[in-house]
Request: fold
Amino acid sequence: MCYVSNDGTIHIAKEDIVVYKIGSSCIKEGPDFFECMYQNFKYKIKERQPEIELKPTIMIDPETDDDVFSVHEGYHSYVSLEYAERIWFNSFVSLSPNEKYWRFAKFIIPKGSSYMTDGNQYVSSCIIFHERLLEV
Reply:
């Protein structure tokens, strides 16, 4: 997953920010783990992930010829459960018929972390898996 936005501003979280991810159960690792759909990264519940420096790069949008900012390394997430569900149902439904049960999970961008947002997605320097939510 790559974050792309017209806004290259890096913010500092003044308080914890609740965000959402799409992923699956980690049957081998047990109920305290969640595997994200992108990169197959595994998160352990309540465990703060290592800090990743956000390094936005400027690209040219081929459709508009405008400058856009891209971030490849960081913790990517969605601003709301509704938005995550819409992304999954519109884009990823074809990926679901396998042995995994796709889920949504609540995460926290901890206070003091760096982040960028376009209003629908976040990319952050740190994240904590808080709880599993819906299974689809």
Q: What stands out?
A: The mean pLDDT is 84. The first strand starts at residue 3 and ends at 5.
